Amino acid sequence: MYPQPGYPFSLALKIEYSLSAEGLKIRTKATNVGSEHAPYGSGAHPYLAVGSDRVDAAMLRVPARTVLEANERGIPVGAGPVAGTELDFRDVRAIGKTKLDHAFTDLERGDDGLARIDLTAAGRQTALWVDESYSYLMVFTGDSLPGGGRRSLAVEPMTCARTPSAAVTG
Fold this sequence. Notes:
The protein is built from no helices and 14 strands. The chain is mostly beta strands and 170 residues long. A hairpin with a 5-residue loop joins β6 (64-70) and β7.
């Protein structure tokens, strides 16, 4: 990545994809090749689908204890527990009419350090897992998309929530 207006820093980015019986693994490495500290955050934007026309009947599990509260521009301004809210998907349940466009954090992880997100419908299951490098998950039902969305579910692993959480130093 070369310096440009809005981000005047130089980074060397390496993305490695590998496919095995365990699934698709993606590794991202960023190295600051400039002389100044460079704010950097990483995220991906996969959409999960399980063969149904809409995600309403799909069963979802998101292992997050906390959801970020955002202002009208989508910028995080606070955080709160998911317990007792419509955003609590720690136990598998139907998405139903819940509109999701939320960043989740405080992820529950297995002994292997992975947080696993599961989406199931029509006898099919899709899973996404993230390692400890990713502290946030943006989950989006697509209600604001043209045509109303809700045909798949975006589950976006992020290292930071909309604003850089750390500087890459080398």
